[in-house]
Design a protein that fits this description.
The chain is of the alpha/beta class and 360 residues long. 45% of the residues lie in helices and 19% in strands. It has 2 domains: 181 residues, Glycogen Phosphorylase B (Rossmann fold), CATH 3.40.50.2000; 167 residues, Glycogen Phosphorylase B (Rossmann fold, 3-Layer(aba) Sandwich). The radius of gyration is 21 Å and the shape is globular.
């Protein structure tokens, strides 16, 4: 089967890691799979032999947005895929319409957030109409919590809603902790909190700066890029703790594994998630996790994390200190995290996607 995956932007983020796993898994099952991005945001996919870009840069206005959409339609008509798997709100809308115009027989749309919570009401309304009209065949929810957010939707929409939990690739590092820290120029002898993800307000990394203020012997390393980079640096400088905040930038997958190997504890203060892929990756890598007390994170991580109110940095700091001071707790969290690898197998996820493609 010839499959095109549609993503909004090319960057090293969670939705893109999922499409990487789906693409690799379906190729291993004998399908031809390419991923097309509406625009190139970073250089994360510049060397990927299975990736294409409609625009080489982020849209700079309505004209660029129109070129991105019409360019995607042209791409689909040239590619003539049998199936389209789309991701993120605008990727779902553009990818589904372009796939229909190109005659794709199988259309799957991934839900990347609760209705109306991300992308605004226009995207939520468009998704609702596309689902009700059967423009795409299935809508994918990646957790039980996310599936429940659609309980109030009409029956015609919910009939097409299917749950496929994310797979989480277990990326092992060949580096020991000291070597990993040296690779990122991180302090060798200090307790090190690590976290990863887009540097945005929703990810709430500012709370981790508050943890640094409460724990004067701890350092924090963040992997990711985004608009909050400079505000985070300014906040740390204002609190007099800038020397203990380390920003390592955007990392490809193998380097992310090495980055996680450098940490003592992974802290995930994100305000809103549908799954929490970054935290699940850290848990499967064996790091004890401290997570924001979100229902979906309790569902996904279970006993692999302890939970605290991330709007209260002192609560996060107390949780981090609890892990630091109790080696038995840290070891139990690590064991529980590694056990998630079987539950969130990428092979299982890809088999479920393939089953839906065959069914439509």
């Amino acid at each position: 089967m010839k499959i095109v995956q549609v993503q909004t932007q090319a960057e090293a983020a969670g939705a893109q890691r999922v499409s990487d796993m789906v693409g690799a898994g379906l190729r291993a099952r004998g399908h031809e799979v390419r991923t097309v991005f509406l625009y190139r945001k970073t250089d994360a996919y510049d060397g990927d032999p299975h990736a294409d870009f409609v625009l080489a840069h982020r849209p700079r206005g309505a004209g660029d947005l129109l070129r991105a959409v019409t360019g995607l339609v042209g791409y689909m008509r040239r590619a003539r895929p049998d199936a389209v798997i789309s991701y993120q709100h605008y990727g779902n809308i553009a990818g589904t319409i372009a796939g229909r115009l190109a005659g794709a027989r199988h259309l799957l749309a991934n839900q990347s957030g609760a209705p109306g919570r991300h992308g605004g009401w226009p995207a939520a309304l468009a998704d609702r109409l596309l689902g009700l009209a059967g423009v795409y065949h299935y809508s994918i929810a990646n957790s039980g919590w996310l599936a429940a957010q659609f309980d109030g939707y009409p029956a015609g929409y919910r009939r097409r809603l299917k749950r496929i939990d994310h797979g989480v690739a277990a990326a092992a590092s060949a580096l020991g902790r000291r070597e990993a820290r040296a690779a990122f120029d991180l302090p060798a002898g200090s307790c090190l909190m690590v976290s990863s993800g887009r540097l945005t307000r929703d990810k709430n990394h500012a709370a981790l700066v508050g943890v640094l203020a409460a724990l004067p012997d701890v350092h924090l390393a963040l992997a990711g890029v985004g608009p909050e980079r400079e505000p985070l640096l300014a906040l740390a400088a204002a609190k007099g703790i800038g020397g203990r905040l380390h920003l390592v930038g955007e990392l490809p997958r193998q380097q992310l594994a090495d980055f996680l190997a450098a940490g003592d504890v992974y802290v995930f203060p994100s305000r809103t998630e549908t799954f929490g892929l970054a935290a699940a990756e850290a848990a499967i890598a064996g790091l004890p996790v401290v997570a924001n007390d979100l229902t979906v994170l309790r569902e996904v991580l279970g006993e692999a994390a302890i939970y605290a109110d991330a709007e209260r940095p002192e609560a996060l700091a107390a949780a981090v200190q609890q892990v630091r001071s109790d080696p038995a707790l840290a070891a139990a969290l690590s064991r529980a995290g590694r056990q998630l690898a079987e539950r969130y197998s990428p092979e299982r996820m890809c088999a479920e996607y393939e089953a839906l493609l065959v069914r439509t």
